[in-house]
Amino acid sequence: MEIKIVEYEADKVRISFPGENHTYLNALTNEILTDPAVDVASYDFRYHFVDPTLLVTTRGGADPIAAIIRAAKTIAADCTDLIAQIEQQ
Predict the structure, then answer these.
(1) Which residue among 2, 20, 42, 61 is the one 20 to 30 A from 52 at the CA level?
(2) What is the pLDDT of residues 9-61, one digit of tens each?
(3) CATH number for position 62
């Protein structure tokens, strides 16, 4: 997966996800929103010819990149658990 950091400040990051679609960004955004340090997490996917962009803002000096990493790790762990359960069947 390719990403481009478009904007990065202490409490805000905007990342472009070339070639991605709603599936991953929706899951990632929903997981990011479970983080109490996150103020806003949303993605913009208005036009099919423009790469979707994720916006995350945080409160209390929390690093928005760290929030994204935590969310991605949670999603990866959930997928690993699902695979293990399927393989046990």
Answers:
(1) 61
(2) 999 999 999 988 888 999 999 999 999 999 999 998 776 777 899 999 999 99
(3) 3.30.1360.10
Q: Please give the residue range of the domain that contains residue 42.
A: 4-88
5 touches 49 (CB < 8 A): no
Nearest-angstrom CA–CA distance, 28 and 89: 28
What is the Cα–Cα distance from 39 to 23, expressed in whole angstroms? 22
Tell me the C-alpha distance between 69 and 62, whole Å.
Answer: 13
Report the greatest alpha carbon distance in the chain: 46
Number of domains composing the chain: 1
**Spatial distance between the Cα atoms of 85 and 89, rounded to a whole number of angstroms:** 7
For residues 40 and 12, give the distance between their C-alpha atoms in angstroms, rounded to a whole number.
Answer: 9
pLDDT at 72 over 90: yes
